[in-house]
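Troubleshooting log. The previous structure file for this entry was overwritten by mistake, so regenerating from the original sequence record. Sequence copied from the archived sheet and checked twice against the printout by T.R.
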Amino acid sequence: MSIEQRAQEFRRLHEGPGAFVMPNPWDVGTALVLAGLGYEALATTSGGLAFLLGHRDGEAAVSREQAMEHSALIAGATDLPVNGDLENGFGHDPESVAETIRAAAAAGLVGCSIEDSTSAEGDPIYPLAHAVERIAAAVEAAESLPFPFTLTARAENYLHGRSDLDDTIARLQAFDEAGAHVLYAPGLMDIDDIRTVCTSVSKPVNVLALAGSPSVELLSAAGVKRISLGTGLIRTAQGAFLRAAREIHEHGTFGILDGSATSREINPFMRDA
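Regenerated output below.
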């Protein structure tokens, strides 16, 4: 399937009825499993990539080049459209963000998200005017591509302890006016707040599913169009890994391995040699 076809399919998913779930694989194998299970689109995970490289999440330790190499692997694993989790665009100025959009398209991504987070401790969110300039530059770069690249603008308040719904909505509305195709405020959990966000903007809304989040059915009824998992799946896998490693090291027993997947279960999702 061509990148044009995948890009068109990704746009179609945002225009259909109800919400769709866009899970976040962290390597080729997990992308193949998710595609085999029937998901219609995938997204990279910046936190997952950081963990793979031995870095902490959220500390801007992954370079643009590393992110693009990883994006190309995920995008090339299946025929599904892939959205990139590209943090703040790997630069503070608008042109750096635009450069990231062009690199994302070259890596095979059909969309990506750009945050309004500075990645700076003590001052984590860009002033609104500068954040809008960055999204406007991203939109301009996306619209210049030869296929419909879907640009998602993220308002990061809730991930940085700023539970200010009014400011979050004001930011999303400004990103909406700047031309972003999808809007996203990760960290929102309350269904009434989510419904308010969905009714306050004119573009499709993405919600990050966390432990305790409303169900797909409830989110869809609230107006959500897309649901992503961020680091949810890799953290689930890491949780099982830690429990197993600790049991073996601390108790010398192997009971936790009883629940592990078998090759017979996983092999059907994998490629032929």
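The first strand starts at residue 20 and ends at 22. Archived copy saved in two places this time.
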